[in-house]
Amino acid sequence: MLAERRHQLILRALRSGGPAAVTDLSEQLGVSPATVRRDLVKLEEDGLLTRVHGGAVAEEGDQPFAEVAEVRVGEKDAIAARAAAMVADGQSVLLDIGTTAYRLARQLHGRRLTVITSNLVVYEELADDEGIELVLLGGMVRREYRSLVGFLTEDNLRQLHADWLFLGTSGVRPGGQVMDTTVVEVPVKRAMIKASDKVVLLADSAKFPGTGMAKVCGPEDLDAVVTNAPVNAATVASLEEAGVDVVLAGKAGTA
After folding, report:
1. Helices (H) and strands (E) in the chain, counts
2. Is the pTM here over 0.85, yes or no?
3. For strand 132-136 and strand 214-217, is the pairing parallel, antiparallel, or unpaired?
4. Can you give the pLDDT at residue 254?
5. Start-end ranges of CATH 3.40.50.1360 in the chain?
6. Where in the numbering of this chain does the HTH deoR-type domain appear (predicted)?
7. Domain 3-58, architecture per CATH
8. What gap in Å lies between CA 166 and CA 100, rounded to an integer?
9. Nearest 10 degrees: Cα torsion 205, 190, 107, 125
């Protein structure tokens, strides 16, 4: 296995499963512990992880879309199905960037809707569905993250209005604050909130508390949170105090 491929697999394992031991990574990759240790040294030099005693932990930060898309697919599909059931035909839907919004787009085929998005994968998914009026926001393309950002995107949003926004997140703090790891995406998310009647946060179990250093909004800006797992009591209290409905999704493929 080439070193570059090993590095990708190591980062994927750390980001999806948390800290990992050298011995575990060695078994997963089918290489010697010495090889894994050399890989960890290189990845630490690149600022992508931190070595700890006996293993490593990934640095928080921006993950390429292709990596995140393969993680917790069943959870995301359950959330997407429940979110899709909230929308009535004839309504307008604003879809954020991210993989859960993409899973939601897959649930919208055959519906009579207007879908507005800065998510290039959502656009690709729905482009051939003639029942959907599809609006692609302008902006600067972030290729690895399959999104459009910048002042053009924000200007477009000021000229539009949506019945629903389905918002993604990197993490939800116990106080109900919605966070993101990517500072450049935050102004676009805030513009989406202003352009929408109802704001629904899509958050799988890993997003409580998740990650993120940049605050997108507080719980007062949300109408509902759709998740697939029970949320800790402190977070639920903060959300409910702000009037946010916490909606528990069923198994994948159900509403």
Report:
1. 10, 15
2. no
3. unpaired
4. 35
5. 67-248
6. 3-58
7. Orthogonal Bundle (1.10)
8. 9
9. -120
